[in-house]
Amino acid sequence: MRDFANENKVVIRISTIVGFSIAALAAIYCLKHAYIVTVNRDIYTFLDASEYIFYIFLAGSIVLNGKYSFKQIIGLILVGIILIFGYLSSSYAALLKAFFIVIAVKELDFYNICQDIYKALLIGTLAVLFMYSIGISDAGIGRRGFVSFGFVTPNVASYIVQTICFLKLYMMAKNQKYKRWSYFIYPILGVGVYFLLGSRNSAFIIAVAPYIVAVLSKIMANRKRKIILVLMEMIPIICMFITMLTAVLYDKSRMVQRLNNLFNARIFLNYYNLKKYGIMLLGQKTAYSSDNYLYNPVTNQYSTFNTIDSSYMCLILQFGICVMVIWIISQMWLIHKFWSEEQYQLMAITLLLFAFGLFESSVLEFVIDFPIICLLAKKNSRNMEYEEISRAS
To answer: What is the pTM of this model?
Structure first.
């Protein structure tokens, strides 16, 4: 007979190892973006190297978990090989790291993992704020006149605040304690992010997040409206199409040029880098610079530094077509999973991140795109018990 008590102990141990490792990686992500760390090569290298320890722990948990069939292992190996080629071509490991975390959490409780990430980001943020308060991690006034409060840029600080807000929003809803004060607090937090950090994108999605969750939950409560599900699953493809279309049409369309002015030259940067690098099957190395302004042939001006503020353009330029297809399919699968499990809070957060990715490149990081970790994880058991009781009554 199977020893269920011992099996449960093993699952608990695996969950603890995975949760601790992911929390440590989230805290390291936070610390690596502190200003003092970015200007100190030795500290940055140490933190970068320490990540491998926790990925080794995750590798061990994958072996101990043993939840994959032979066919699943073959499929994961093929996906992993493509992501490794994407990493070797681009030198950008974000998606490979996210893949490793996703397969490590199979059938583990996603809610508990979110709690671990939430606590780690809070601790990391408080550590950076402490270093800022004592004057050892102060980036000064940013180029748009905002302070980063110890982080390397105000935008990075806003991404982390945004993730903390999303995690809290999800955990409140999953605990059946979705308090009405979130409708008032989150808009206030959004205003604070805008005036303190200058991030319009993060400020906006933080402010509207509780309302999007509420509206989406009501819409999706009608399980017969599968056409809405199909449209939501298509959003990653639509966002990629919009990104590519506006980049291609930038020098031809006055309307696109007006949109470019509205979005702080993001479309021009997509156009410039698409023209400069082109699209590869398995990705390529790209070089961005904040040293010199770029010449814009449409406006006949030198107007902005070379960077890419679009996760979709980063995805296709740096990682190539093959990795882009894998990413889009995984996001479509994720939306369907949330719908089938009635996890509308996570679905709404994911949809907000799809929109956010049009204007920011950070969505490819697992810390910012934390819902992707749920791809193979199980629904929170406590919430499932609550739903069963609700249906029975």
So the answer is: 0.89
Q: Concatenate the DSSP letters of all residues of 221-284 into one string.
A: TSTT-HHHHHHHHTHHHHHHHHHHHHHHHTTT-HHHHHHHHHTTTHHHHHHHHHHHH---SS--
Predicted pLDDT of residue 178? 65
DSSP-assigned letter for residue 317: I
CB 310 within 8 Å of CB 290 = no
Partners of 294 in beta bridges: 304
Of 368, 315, 325, the C-alpha closest to 92 is 315
How do residues 249-306 score in pLDDT, each as one tens digit?
999 999 999 999 888 889 999 999 999 999 999 889 988 766 678 888 888 887 777 8
CB 313 within 8 Å of CB 85: no
For residues 73 and 67, what is the distance between their CA atoms, to the nearest angstrom?
10
The DSSP symbol for 299 reads T
Tokens 């939501």 label which residue?
Answer: 232
